Amino acid sequence: MRDLVLLVILGWIFVQAFRRPWIGILGWTWLSIMNPHQLSWALRDMPFAAAVGGATLIGLFATKDRRDYSQSREGITLMLFMAWMCITLPFSMLFDDSFDLWKRVMKIDLMILVAMVLLHSKRHMMLLTWVLVISIGFFGVKGGAFTVLTGGSYKVWGPENTYIEGNNEVALAIVMTIPLMRFLQMQMTAKWAKTTMTVCMVLMAMAALGSHSRGALLAIAAMALVLWWRGKNKVVGAVVMVVVAVALLSVMPAEWWERMNTIKTYQQDESAMGRINAWGMAWNLAKSNFFGGGFYIWTAPIFVIYGPDPLNVHAAHSIYFMVMGEQGFVGLFLFLTLFTMVWFTGGYLRKQGRKQPETQWLSDLGGMLQVSLAGYAVGGAFLSLSYWDFPYNLLILAVLGRRWLDRKEWLKEKAEPVVYWPDFLKKRFQKKNRAPLLP
């Protein structure tokens, strides 16, 4: 039954992608971030993402819907980063393996660019945010409940055969999603909806802690610091954060505390020292090779040449050193420039959006995008998620938000009431005066 329902949903998205390619983009994002077919029995190996992506690209040129080909500094920088990865590909030390991952990264980045062409309205931005929240929230809420019921004695893991399969990776994904959930909550008016979202955010935080990821703990701390710094009443904010932290941490078992304490004694931790050795290898390789080593360089033969300890082979476990080793210093510069731009665009939205009541939601969005990026910047320092889709979707939201604000789109879009999903389902088949899906 599960497979049949999923097949019907994906079939509908595939058909709609030809006529309304923005629906295809949302479907692609859902498939790419959540990988719902991995939860089925018989559909796991079906190329749904390729089918929906192909239909969306056809729809891009066939649709009569609005398309926006204007360029932003983020879009241009992303294209430069893609071009650089194409330049470095022939110089890859392990070309066959590198070529496979290069194709995957190019597909992801291409669809990010397509999304910035097809999505433009407030409705699109809200829907994209909901897709991201639901995609990660499904695993986070479930993982949080599991952590509470088991007392944190077992690790929370991500979906198999995805970027976030590992406990560390899914923890960062969950942490980065919490600010987006808070943004959606800030747009809600119904008390039951706000309460439900609060419960979900608490469970998400519990899931991140239940992953036993030290990087996730640091990412949560970084996001909390940003929120506290921006709070109007810092004393009250600090007290609330301490109370919430004590309540959440009191659930965690002794083995969790022992693992977190290894942050202080990382010199004695084999995993931590392996990461530091991998960072040293990336630094040595980038200094010796202008174009980097290409994808999949974290292997024994390359560590023998560039590793400080040639026998301690370890994955990069850092978005920064991963890009440095694979794409060289030029690639790292483009990568850092890209997300620095997204950070400042989020800040622009946060400040400019509060000037008009109609754009206050963009101020909320910009602030929460920055909080999410703070989690990525800190947590990503210890994880290999440089090419993962989610952060690039934050880029999409930032770019679309600035376009919407600068062009005064709130003066052009027809004012219609906000409708939550349950009400929307009741009115779905009304032919006239249908309210937009803005959860």
Automatic annotation (TrEMBL):
Recorded superkingdom: Bacteria
| UniProt GO molecular function | ligase activity
Enumerate the InterPro entries for this protein: CHP03097O-antigen_lig-rel, DUF5935, O-antigen_ligase-rel_domated, WaaL-like
Membrane spanning stretches: 43-63, 75-95, 101-120, 127-150, 170-190, 202-229, 235-254, 290-308, 328-349, 361-384
Q: Does the keyword Mitochondrion apply?
A: no
Q: Name one Pfam family in it.
A: DUF5935
Q: Which UniProt keywords apply?
A: Ligase, Membrane, Transmembrane, Transmembrane helix
The O-antigen ligase-related domain sits at 200-336
Membrane disposition:
Multi-pass membrane protein
**Subcellular locations according to the entry:** Membrane
First-listed, main subcellular location of the protein, grouped into a coarse class: membrane
What are the residue boundaries of the DUF5935 domain, all occurrences included?
A: 1-187
- List the PANTHER family hit by this protein, alphabetically: LIPOPOLYSACCHARIDE BIOSYNTHESIS PROTEIN PA4999-RELATED, TEICHURONIC ACID BIOSYNTHESIS PROTEIN TUAE
Return the NCBIfam families for the record: PEP_O_lig_1
Q: What is this protein called?
A: O-glycosylation ligase, exosortase A system-associated
